[in-house]
Amino acid sequence: MADTATARRSRITPEREAELYEAVLDLLREVGYDALTMDAVAARTRSSKATLYRQWGGKAELVVKAVRHTKSGETDEVDTGSLRGDLHALVTREDDCVMERNSALMRGLAMAMHHNEDLLRTFREQLIEPEMAGIRRVIRRAVDRGEVRPDCPALEFVVHMFVGGFATRALIENQPPTRAFLTSYIDAVILPALGVRVP
Amino acid sequence: MADTATARRSRITPEREAELYEAVLDLLREVGYDALTMDAVAARTRSSKATLYRQWGGKAELVVKAVRHTKSGETDEVDTGSLRGDLHALVTREDDCVMERNSALMRGLAMAMHHNEDLLRTFREQLIEPEMAGIRRVIRRAVDRGEVRPDCPALEFVVHMFVGGFATRALIENQPPTRAFLTSYIDAVILPALGVRVP
C-alpha cells in the first residue's frame, strides 16, 4: 500500500514534465550548461534532487530531454507521399519563433559539448541519432517509391547537406535558420543533389 | 641613419614570420585562445611585445594571421578550366596531415569566437571572407563559361554546401575532413546541385 503510494507520487504527469523541462531551459538560458546545477533545478521546480536523479539519471540527460521536448512531433510521423513533401514537413515542425528562441541556447550547448563528453554522448544518442534515423527513413521510402536512385552518390551525404543548411546560418551569418530559408535550401540543394526534380 | 637601422630591425623576414606563426600555433594548441597571452608569445619567440603589437595590432589578428599562414596557396590562383577541377583544387590545397593537425585547433578557435567578438570579426574578415570571395570567383567563371546556369537556385547556397562538408565530419563524426571525403562530397552534392554533370 505504501509502495503503491510512493510509485504514484514518483510518477510524473505529462503536464508536470513539460513544466519541469521549461524550467530547465529557462535556467540554461540564464546561466548556461556549466553553471547549471541539479540543486538549482530542484529549487526552481520545487522537486527533490532524488526525484530528478531517479527520473533522469543526471544533468546531461535532463538537459537533452528538455531540449528534445521543444521539438514538436516525431520525425517518423512524417509521411506525405513525396520526398519534397516529407523534407519540407521535417523542417517546418518548429516555427521561426521557436528556432529564434532556441538558437542561442543550442550554440551554448554546442560549446559546452566541446569539454563535456557526457553531454556530447547523450546529445548524440538522444537527439542527433533519432533525428538522423527519421531522415534516413524518409529517404528510404523515397528510394522505395523510385523517386531517388538507389545508387545516387548523394545518399551518403544527406546529413552533411542538412547540417550545412542548419549550421551555416548560425555560424557564418549569425542568425537562426527560418522555415523559408530551409525550404529554399531543400529545393535548391538537397533535392537536386538527390536527382529529384523540383516543380 | 639610426632610423634606417630601426626600420631594418623591425622589418620581419618571411622566415622569421613563419617561425613566429608556428610558435603561436604551438601555444594555441597548448593553452587555447583564452589563456594565450602576448607575453607568452613574446617570451616563446624571443621578441618584444612592442614589436608584436606594432606588427599585428593585437592577439586576435596575430592568431588569425598564424592560422591563415597554414593555408598553402591563394584561392584566386586556382583556374583549371573547369568547375570540377577548380573545386577539387580548392579542397586539396592542404594535405590530410595538416587538416588532421589543425582540426582540434580550429574547433578550439570556434569555441573561443563564441565569447570573443574581436576574434570572430577578425576571423570573418581575414579568413572566411577571402576564402568565400575565392569560391565566388571560381563559380562566376563557371557561369561565364556556361557550365552553370546563371539562374541556378543552388548558386545562393554554395557556402552552405561547403560548410556542410567541412563542419559535419568535425561535429558529428568527430573527425577532420580528408581530401578523399571532400572530393567525393563535391562530386556527389555540390556539382549535381549546380547542375554540372560529373563524368
TrEMBL record, chains A, B:
Pfam families: TetR_C_11, TetR_N. Keywords: DNA-binding, Transcription, Transcription regulation. InterPro entries: Homeodomain-like_sf (IPR009057), HTH-type_TetR-like_transc_reg (IPR050109), HTH_TetR (IPR001647), Tet_transcr_reg_TetR-rel_C_sf (IPR036271), TetR_C (IPR011075). Residues 14-74 form the HTH tetR-type domain. It comes from the Bacteria. The keyword DNA-binding applies. Residues 37-56 bind DNA. GO terms for molecular function: DNA-binding transcription factor activity; transcription cis-regulatory region binding. This is TetR family transcriptional regulator. It comes from Streptomyces echinoruber.
